[in-house]
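Researcher: We're teaching a course module on how sequence relates to structure. For the next exercise, students receive a sequence and then see the predicted structure as tokens, so they can try to spot secondary structure elements on their own. Here is the exercise chain.
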Amino acid sequence: MPPRIDSASRLISASLQTLYRAFADSGALESWLPPDDTTGTMLHFDFRDGGLYRMRLTCTKPEQGRGKTSENTDEVEVQLTKIEDGRRIEQEITFKSEDSSSSGVVRMIWTFQPQNEGTLVPTTSFLRTARALNLDTPADFALYSETHDDAA
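Model: And here is the predicted structure for the students to work with:
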């Protein structure tokens, strides 16, 4: 199966520094990254070029049973393959799953482009499996950023 490529872009009324910190701070990442009806728990966090973090995502509505790692959890390992401080983050995300249709690697590239009205945040995902990533993530990121504008 060829990789699927998805792109999204959003102008967010927050400073570049605020948005970049949303990635560089483990507590902030736990807050905004999990999709709706999911909580995040950081298991390991080493934000640097070549570093990685591991996060457990737990469904708050277990009756939906949408976990990839277990009935109501997803565990991800995110390798930070390239970081350009304040400008660009490249990641390779691996989902832990026994189901081959839910495991695999997703490559994501986030860029931060200052604008007069805030920061433009384009993101591109390269999926190597059919169901590996909830692509609501850019919207979740935008929502977090818009509601935390005063965190600069």
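Model: If you want an answer key for the exercise: The two ends are 42 Å apart (CA to CA). Residues 39 and 51 are 23 Å apart (CA to CA).
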